[in-house]
Amino acid sequence: MGGGAPEPAESAVLVPVPEAERVVSRHRARLDGAAAQGVPAHVTVLYPFVPPSAITAATLESLAAAVASVGAFDCEFPVTGPTAARSTMPCRT
User: Fold this and answer.
1) Is residue 44 included in any domain, yes or no?
2) How far apart (Å, rounded) are the C-alpha atoms in residues 78 and 53?
3) Which of 14, 40, 44, 62 gives 20 to 30 Å between its CA and that of 32?
4) Cα–Cα dist 83/2, whole Å
């Protein structure tokens, strides 16, 4: 048995939001195991995505094509608060 990091068991499509880190980091440190694994503050677009072992270059190309037509937009997160397992921030566009 190797001593490396375990293989990921799940995947998600995320959009990092580094500006939110200072606001949510203390919640995430307590409630979100992904934070300890280096996952930044983010907006979850799709979860679950596909099994990590099934992610190929074609999978990523298809994902890129699916989101290519979505333009940038502004989004506010007026409140924050912990839920059972995650810190959530409703988005107001």
Assistant:
1) yes
2) 37
3) 62
4) 35
pTM: 0.74
Helix (H, G, I), strand (E, B) or coil at 87: strand
pLDDT at residue number 84 = 42
Quick check: 39 and 25 in contact, CB under 8 A?
no
- Helix (H) / strand (E) element for 42: namely strand 42-46
Counting the structural domains of the chain, the total is 1
The residue range of the domain holding 25 is: 16-65+74-88
In a domain, 10, yes or no: no
> How far is Cα 49 from Cα 5, in angstroms, rounded to an integer?
21
- d(CA 46, CA 13) in angstroms, rounded, equals 5
pLDDT digits (tens, 9 = 90+) for 6-62: 788 899 999 998 988 888 888 888 888 889 889 998 888 899 999 999 999 999 999
In a domain, 11, yes or no: no
- Quick check: is 93 in a domain? no
